[in-house]
Design goal:
Oligomer: single chain
Helix content: 55-70%
Largest sheet: none
Strand content: under 5%
Structural class: mainly alpha
Distance between the termini: 31 Å
Number of helices: 3
Number of domains: 1
Order of helices and strands: HHH
Protein backbone atom coordinates (compact mmCIF):
# COMPACT_ATOMS: atom_id res chain seq x y z
CA UNK A 1 0.00 0.00 0.00
CA UNK A 2 2.86 2.38 0.83
CA UNK A 3 4.49 1.96 -2.57
CA UNK A 4 1.18 2.40 -4.42
CA UNK A 5 0.42 5.56 -2.47
CA UNK A 6 3.91 6.86 -3.14
CA UNK A 7 3.63 6.22 -6.90
CA UNK A 8 0.25 7.99 -7.01
CA UNK A 9 1.58 10.94 -5.00
CA UNK A 10 4.54 11.21 -7.39
CA UNK A 11 2.14 11.12 -10.36
CA UNK A 12 0.17 13.93 -8.75
CA UNK A 13 3.34 15.93 -8.17
CA UNK A 14 4.34 15.51 -11.80
CA UNK A 15 0.88 16.66 -12.88
CA UNK A 16 1.18 19.76 -10.66
CA UNK A 17 4.64 20.40 -12.09
CA UNK A 18 3.21 20.30 -15.60
CA UNK A 19 0.46 22.71 -14.58
CA UNK A 20 2.95 25.10 -13.00
CA UNK A 21 5.51 25.03 -15.78
CA UNK A 22 3.43 24.65 -18.91
CA UNK A 23 -0.23 25.12 -17.95
CA UNK A 24 -0.95 21.51 -18.94
CA UNK A 25 -3.19 19.44 -16.68
CA UNK A 26 -2.40 15.93 -17.95
CA UNK A 27 -5.18 14.28 -15.93
CA UNK A 28 -7.78 16.67 -17.35
CA UNK A 29 -6.33 16.33 -20.83
CA UNK A 30 -6.56 12.53 -20.75
CA UNK A 31 -9.91 12.29 -18.95
CA UNK A 32 -12.12 14.92 -20.55
CA UNK A 33 -11.54 18.06 -18.48
CA UNK A 34 -11.17 18.96 -14.83
CA UNK A 35 -14.85 18.54 -14.06
CA UNK A 36 -15.25 15.16 -15.76
CA UNK A 37 -16.18 12.44 -13.28
CA UNK A 38 -13.12 10.33 -14.19
CA UNK A 39 -10.80 13.29 -13.57
CA UNK A 40 -12.44 13.99 -10.23
CA UNK A 41 -12.04 10.34 -9.22
CA UNK A 42 -8.35 10.40 -10.17
CA UNK A 43 -7.79 13.69 -8.32
CA UNK A 44 -9.49 12.19 -5.25
CA UNK A 45 -7.46 8.96 -5.35
CA UNK A 46 -4.22 10.93 -5.73
CA UNK A 47 -5.24 13.20 -2.85
CA UNK A 48 -5.96 10.20 -0.63
CA UNK A 49 -2.60 8.71 -1.61
CA UNK A 50 -0.92 11.95 -0.55
CA UNK A 51 -2.66 11.76 2.82
CA UNK A 52 -1.54 8.14 3.19
CA UNK A 53 2.05 9.21 2.47
CA UNK A 54 1.94 11.43 5.55
CA UNK A 55 1.99 8.22 7.60
CA UNK A 56 5.33 7.35 5.99
CA UNK A 57 6.89 10.27 7.84
CA UNK A 58 6.06 8.65 11.17
CA UNK A 59 6.96 5.04 10.42
CA UNK A 60 9.85 3.57 12.32
CA UNK A 61 12.81 3.26 10.04
CA UNK A 62 14.33 -0.20 9.67
CA UNK A 63 18.11 -0.07 9.40
CA UNK A 64 19.55 -1.51 6.21
CA UNK A 65 21.24 -4.87 6.62
CA UNK A 66 24.97 -4.58 6.55
CA UNK A 67 26.73 -6.57 3.89
CA UNK A 68 29.63 -8.73 5.03
Amino acid sequence: MDNTALVLAIAGAINWGLIGLFGIDLVALLCGGQTAILSRIIYTVIGLAGLWCITLLFKEKIPAKQMH
